[in-house]
Amino acid sequence: MAKAKGKVSFKEDLCKGCELCTTVCPVNIIEMERTRINIKGYHPATVKEMDKCIGCANCATICPDLVINVEREMDK
Amino acid sequence: MAVIFERTNGLTEKPFHYCPGCTHGVIHRLVGEVLEELGVLGETIGVAPVGCSVLAYDYFNCDMHEAAHGRAPAVATGIKRVFPDKVVFTYQGDGDLASIGTAEIIHVAHRAEKITTIFVNNAIYGMTGGQMAPTTLIGQKATTAPYGRDAGATGRPLKVSEMLATIDGAVFVERVAVNTPANIRKAKKAIKKAFEVQLSGEGFGIVEILSTCPTNWGLTPTESLKWLEENMMPYYPLGNFRTPEEVK
Q1: Can you give the residue ranges of the 4Fe-4S ferredoxin-type domain (chain A) (predicted)?
Q2: In 3-state terms, what secondary structure has residue A48?
Q3: For a designed S-S bond to A72, which of A6, B53, B150, B192 qualifies (C-beta 3.0 to 4.6 A apart)?
Q4: Taking CB atoms and an 8 Å cutoff, what residues of chain B touch A26?
Q5: Cβ separation of A64 and B1 shorter than 8 Å?
Q6: Which residues of A touch B (CB under 8 A)?
Q7: For B202, phi and psi rounded to 5 degrees?
């Protein structure tokens, strides 16, 4: 079965830490970086286990601040 | 890897000033993407309202005009009549459209002006600090209704889409929400349809979008989306109220 592989990148300084992206990720890999703050003073969203990403773009769809870019490829 | 999602050209590079988790950002993006996909960015004139989205003219990558509170449809009428070939849209909140601008929105529909209205309904006045709007739900707390809205004293929430759907000039009326990725994709389709109705010259199109206000609702962004689904969606049912086929 073809398995989708994706990659997301965050424009961290735009993130306002609303956490909406973490609630819609089907593989639950988005988390808030609790040890750091961005230029706006929020804990930014980040992904630690990028190899689990399926590139569904749910996170980018719900992000109100256009923080997230998504890439995807299909493995045979 | 192929890029499947990136910032649309329909928006400028300016970061939004909205509160964390405010869905205005999502709706701005959808409008920008639709204008880009229809290839009309250079031909579009938008009219910004008064309210949280008063600075919308900084965000859309097209010509914009600011209107007095509630008067965006009147200003858009003037623009469309002077430039009938341009794409004209208004972006309005519920305090703007459903309260002070009720006369303008009803008559822009009644005259079947060929414009598109994006109506963002979050059941409260956001910018001024959470006062009760005509769309505030019964029992919902607001700074001017600290014990919750009372139907006896202040009436019942106004259903704008249902009201406009009774007017023949409003050829496209649909209510959508932006609480889940699936609903956001449906909202984009509705917005696109509303602009296509204008491009084909059929008449007035409006999309009512149920939105959140985490700050004035006193909830987290995640709780707000849940509150929208549990409280707003039963009273304001999603769906299409009028399509061009129905008019023909």
Answers
A1: 6-35, 43-73
A2: coil
A3: A6
A4: none
A5: no
A6: 5-7, 14, 16-20, 23-24, 42, 55, 57-58, 60-66, 68-73
A7: -85, -25
Q: Give the burial string for B91-126 (b: 16+ CB within 10 Å, else e).
A: bbbbbbbbbebeebbbebbeebbbbbbbbbbbbbbb
* Interface confidence (ipTM) of the complex: 0.93
Domain count, chain B: 1
Q: Which residues constitute the domain of residue A8?
A: 3-75
The answer to whether residue B14 sits within a structural domain is no
- The answer as to whether B18 is a domain residue is no
Q: Which of A66, A70, A71 to mutate to test the interface with B (most CBs of B within 10 A)?
A: A66
CB atoms within 10 A of CB B87: 22
Look up the CATH number of the domain holding residue B59. Answer: 3.40.50.970
Please state, in angstroms and rounded to a whole number, the distance separating the CA atoms of residues A34 and B61. 34
Tokens of B154: 């202040």
pLDDT of B245 reads 74
Residue B144 lies in a domain: yes
One-letter amino acid for residue A12 of the chain: E
Least CB-CB distance to B1: which of A63, A68, A73? A73
Indicate if the pLDDT at residue B248 is higher than 60: no
Out of A19, A69, A73, closest to residue B221 by CB? A19
Range of the domain at B91: 24-247
- What pLDDT is stored for residue B244 in this prediction? 83
d(CA B122, CA B242): 22
- HEC string of B145-165? ECCCECHHHHCCCCCHHHHHC
Query: What count of CB pairs under 8 Å joins A to B?
Result: 76
Residue A50's CATH number: 3.30.70.20
Domain assignment present for residue B1? The answer is no
Identify the residue whose tokens are 């061009």. Answer: B244
Confidence of residue A75 (pLDDT cuts 50, 70, 90): low
Nearest CB to B23; choose among A42, A64, A70: A64
